[in-house]
Amino acid sequence: MPIQQMLLGFDDLHSFTDLDAFSQNIPIEWIESALQLTTKASIRRRRLPPEQVLWLVMGMALFRHEPIGEVARRLNICAEGLANEALLARSGLSEARQRLGDQPLEWLFKRTGQHWGTERYPQDDWHGLQIFAVDGALFRTPDTPELREHFGSGNTSSQRQTAFPMMRLVALMNVRSHVILNAQLSPYRRSEMRLAETFIAQIPDHSVTLFDKGFWGADLLLSINRTGEQRHWLIPERKGLVYEEVEAYNEHDRLLQMTVSAQARKRHPALPETWTVRAVSYEVNGKLKTVFTSLPAERFSTAQVATLYQERWEIELGFRDIKSSMQHNAITLRSKKVELIYQEVWGMLLAYNVIRREASQAAVCYGRSPSEIRFKPACQFIAAQLIVMGAAQPASKTGADYQNYEQASRACFWSTVLGHRHRGR
Least CB-packed of 6, 373, 414, 420 within 10 Å? Predict the structure, then answer.
């Protein structure tokens, strides 16, 4: 089965006889459920069907340097009987995207993220816990009155607004596989912490989540380890905190007691008046750094905690992969309407997760860790496969021919990336 059909299967959502390989990526029923969310799903056959528009939006992320019309042509986006130039015109594709909306992409991204982001791989655990990270990123939108009014922008050092409106993204990522479990998109003015609160409940049990110092807050952090089973957190020290030392485990490891702020207790009346945190200090380039954590000292040593926080930078690498490798360092998003901006970014995150999940599955086949696969060549390989499969003539080859070609090329590629000699999967 072509990887093009494995990823979305837009040609015929009910015609597949071998669903095993397809279900390893995006099951057909998930796509059908996602498309039911659009209020304009009843589309005449002379227009682009919604499943093809969904595929087109993902293709926009994989071919950021190409105009949207060229993306549609590269992927052979029009099925037989729909190859009308008017459909592939910029205005026709824009109208098709507006009919689809952003909800199907958001739903499909979050559904796949919940499943793929919690998958366990060899060398994945850290002393029995999965490692996740939460952080934020910004995306620049075109400067139109509509987008500036909705998204807003930051202030420069001279108190003037930045030249472009800004969208805020906050994401929850599996540190080892780099798959994004969940994310929230919003205008610039929304707080990263408030956005993170919307998906904190989805952090899996038996895990530790790494935060940047901007997410410090008793209400957010206590909500992690007060619910679920063995859910822990780790965050850099926030300067100026008032605390009382309860116990010293060693010179660089202490248990502290702090007061929960009145603001936090007002938002969440069930919070206690005080809470305890573990403070672990370590030296970096001659400077002493401190992290706070809920990891218990009787189970996790000072050195283990200090070393773990270095993995928080993996989420920064994930954001870099999206902006650099997928977007080719294009600073500004391509859409010019509010709903299409959200649609574009949800499609980008979904495409990113498909690549990461495919890479993780390949790593398992070769007994390696998902983090050992570089994102850029994986992205380029999948994009090239989509072009080949999109350009192929269905009448000239059987489904078995497609499957054999696709499996052989994928096996050869992943063995090269992982430094192995080619061997069958």
Answer: 420
